[in-house]
Amino acid sequence: MYYKSTRDSNVNVTAAQAIAQGISKDGGLFVPSEIPVITFDDIKAMGEMSYPDRAAFVFSKYLTDFSESEIRYCVDNAYTEKNFDTKNICELAKLFDGTYMLELWHGPTCAFKDMALQILPYLITTSSKKINLDKRVVILVATSGDTGKAALEGFKDVDGTQIMVFYPVDGVSKMQKKQMTTQEGNNVFVCAINGNFDDAQNGVKSIFTDREVENQLSKNGLMFSSANSINWGRLAPQIIYYVSSYAQLVKDKEIKLGEKINIVVPTGNFGNILAAYYAKKMGVPVNKLICASNSNNVLTDFLKTGVYDRNRKFYTTISPSMDILISSNLERLLYHLCGENDSQIRNWFSSLADCGKYEVTDDVKAVLRKEFYAGFCDDMQTKACIKEQYDKHSYVCDTHTAVAVKVYEDYRKITGDTAKTVIASTASPYKFSNSVLDALGEFDSSMDEFELVDKLYETSRLDVPKSLAELKDKQIRFNDTIEKSEMKNFVLKSLGV
Ligand SMILES: *Cc1c(COP(=O)(O)O)cnc(C)c1O
């Protein structure tokens, strides 16, 4: 199996090259040259396997240049009870008959990004060894909160890597700040920037593309890499849990082998739902892929009309990880749907860069309508949904997951489709305790972030994730705040080059 670039179909690289490189030199994203197929027998067999074994099986279809022992090394280091609070790695909870919550937040930072970022460091270091890069990998991340912490936890103390995270000094929540400033590990650096998220992001981008820095690193046996969701090494691990949850439902006799299910995903950058699309194309019986957005509903409009238009108001919502107007992974889907027509993709995405807008062909529109359903809800509806699920089903969901539940309820009403359904639950409610308590009518503005966690425990009686509970007594390790202009020096100085 080879990987092509969405902007140049002549590019042909191995999985190891695609993962070590991150993005193609032409600016395109790497996609598999064909989507591997699994059979019903495979699905049945997977039902009897542990999560790491299921993961190894799915990876073996995509990382065909990796040896069995290389795949095992990655999988066994990432998906363990040391990193996740359940040996199942992710859980399927029944919300009500025929509707299941796929809880993807049992990892160290309590959000679904752990599912990929726990394994990405091993995929990157194995890949760079395979292609004889033989350099230590330096990961630079600009974060508005969640990705930075998940990347830090993934890369901490992984041999052959260093990680450096920059965040806007007043742009993250108190809990997120505490999570990052107390980060443990001997290869981690965390630093605040005087500025907003864009300043941090632009600073990181300019260091990435600085020739002088690159040479300096290279002389010292170092190279940059990215933990961003455009890396195939972040997408592939997400396909696994969709295949795995179908196999689990069959094993638990909740569905019959071959029965079609719906999958609902609260969406931002289109990575998680694209993984569900790959699972479907591999042979998992899926009816509709339901794309749920918050008030930043650019994807709802796109999937309904075929017109992508980012020229619209940006909303700051209570589901911040979905506050996105450019969903980069959509490029991969469109490449597959337009018959791998790279010039078509170049046209659409240069139009997006120039005027913030493009319109796909009628053929592509027809497939989008067939495969996807799209909907959105605002903050008021999100909160009402959290309260309703708690009252009706005693299930407390976080703000992102609630968007998905609400859009799914609308879908059921509009279509009358009662097929069994899996809803991706992307964060622990504790991660967004204040919004969740507010929705339940229990918010107290005099409480600090840890008192709010205790309060949510009294209400929900859900176990508090250990990693959040322990945070309270952790030592602050990183207290630097620097100007944007000092970022480059900070990087070079921290690396000692
Ligand atoms: C990142 C994130 C999302 C959005 O996922 P995409 O892959 O970007 O679509 C949804 N919910 C939570 C909690 C997240 O952290």
Main sheet record: 6 strands, mixed
Sheet with most strands: strand arrangement = 4-5-15-10-11-14
Find the CATH topology of one domain.
Rossmann fold
Mean pLDDT equals: 95
What percentage of residues falls in helices of 4 or more residues?
Answer: 40-55%
Sheet-strand content, in percent, reads 15-25%
CATH top level of one domain is Alpha Beta
Count of alpha and pi helical runs: 22
Write out the distinct hetero groups bound to the structure: pyridoxal-5'-phosphate
CATH architectural type of one domain: 3-Layer(aba) Sandwich
Describe the structure.
- The chain is of the alpha/beta class and 497 residues long.
- The chain has a domain at 91-107 and 233-432: Rossmann fold, CATH 3.40.50.1100.
- Helices cover 46% and strands 16% of the residues.
- The protein contains 22 helices and 16 strands.
- The chain has helices spanning 15-21, 40-47, 51-62, 68-78, 113-117, 120-130, 146-155, 174-181, 197-208, 211-219, 232-251, 271-282, 298-305, 330-337, 342-355, 362-371, 379-393, 399-415, 433-439, 449-460, 466-471, 487-495; strands at residues 3-5, 8-13, 30-32, 91-96, 99-103, 136-142, 161-168, 188-193, 222-225, 261-266, 286-293, 307-309, 357-359, 372-376, 421-425, 481-482.
- The strands form 4 sheets. A 6-stranded mixed sheet has the order 4-5-15-10-11-14, sandwiched between helices. It has a 5-stranded parallel sheet with strand order 9-6-7-8-16, with helices on both faces. The chain has a 3-stranded antiparallel sheet with strand order 2-1-3.
- Strand 4 (91-96) and strand 5 (99-103) form a beta hairpin.
- Helix 3 crosses helix 11.
- It binds pyridoxal-5'-phosphate.
- The site of pyridoxal-5'-phosphate has 16 residues, from helix 12.
